Amino acid sequence: MKRLTGKDVARAAGVSASAVSRAFTAENRLNKATRDHILKVAAEMGYRPNALARSLIKQESDLVAVVFGNTDGMYDKDFFNRLSTELQKRGKWALQIRSEEEENIAETLGKALMYPVAAAIVRAGTVDLQVIENSKQMHVPLIYTGLGPTVKGADCVWLNYKRGGQLGTEHLIKRGCKKIAYIGGIEGITADTGRREGYLEALQAAGLQPHSISQTRFDFESGMQSALKLLQSDNPPDGFYCVSDAAALGALNAAKSLLNLRVPEDVAVVGSDNMPMAAWPCFDLTAATNPIDEIVQNLMSTLEARLADPSQKEMSVVVEPQLVIRGSA
Fold first, then answer.
1. Mean pLDDT of all residues in the chain?
2. Residue 285 falls within a domain, yes or no?
3. Confidence of residue 19 (pLDDT cuts 50, 70, 90)
4. What is the domain range of residue 26?
């Protein structure tokens, strides 16, 4: 069946094709009766405007590419939901594309740029210069989140991961923990690097040595296995600072469910991100925050400023974490 066009609706409604086009835009400049008539006829005919075709004609787009690297899946799902909601409030739509490996971000963004996008938001733990070069060649504004403090050639909204590591470790020290283990993420990812630095600096300031440093994939299973191995060793830790809530929940499961240890009396656990499930009574997880709402609002402000003035210098916005204390530490 032939796809209906705006001209078909115009003929049926007895108006011009441009009037049909204006009826489907936010600033339509049509009187209410005419617009209502056009929309009624269009609905009866089953017509829907082709947004991609319109963007090509007008050289404008309502699409924003959102590219995810290999970070924390639990956090990313909530992050994307909030981000897409805020974009829609501003008349834009998120085109989500995930890269399973950090080294494939450039290729993934290249696929996203095959669509007429107004901008690209990349949540990744590492910088790929090819990503920045690709966006420049296509004249597509690029905003990184998950990195910091600056990304040359792109705007950046970033969390102070190092401060989160300090807050979590300092709290464990105040509780009296002296053998604090770090359950980290993928080595080289910014979240892991920053939080590990904060952990080490807090220990050094207190005159303590790190008990152990484990690298995981930010997830529940690897956090659980790392904690289980350490807790069953001849020299078990009395505290865990974890790179993510997922890894921390894995450590909690190892301690409480698998080894019947008391938390926080036998071992205390602190996570990072403060996802909603961290507050569930069954977990009651103390965590350094990674405030999605604040980060998303800063992304929106940065995006709007960049689209309004593409020539302005690179912007970098830092978000500071807080520590939410609950029963696990």
1. 87
2. yes
3. confident
4. 6-49
What pLDDT, in 10s, does the model give residues 178-207? 999 999 998 888 889 999 999 999 999 999
Q: What is the 3-state secondary structure (H, E, C) of the chain?
A: CCCCCHHHHHHHHCCCHHHHHHHCCCCCCCCHHHHHHHHHHHHHHCCCCCHHHHHHHHCCCCEEEEEECCCCHHHHHHHHHHHHHHHHHCCCEEEEEECCCHHHHHHHHHHHCCCCEEEEEEECCCCCHHHHHHHHHCCCCEEEECCCCCECCEEEEEECHHHHHHHHHHHHHHCCCCCEEEEECCCCCHHHHHHHHHHHHHHHHCCCCCCEEEECCCCHHHHHHHHHHHHCCCCCCCEEEECCHHHHHHHHHHHHHHCCCCCCCCCEEEEEECCHHHHCCCCCCEEEECCHHHHHHHHHHHHHHHHHCCCCCCCEEEECCCEECCCCC
pLDDT above 90 as % of the chain:
53
- Looking at the structure, do residues 105 and 13 belong to the same domain, yes or no? no
Domain contains 81: yes
Same domain, 212 and 303: no
Cβ(264)–Cβ(328) under 8 Å?
Answer: yes
What's the pLDDT score for residue 28? 60
Q: Does residue 1 sit within a domain?
A: no
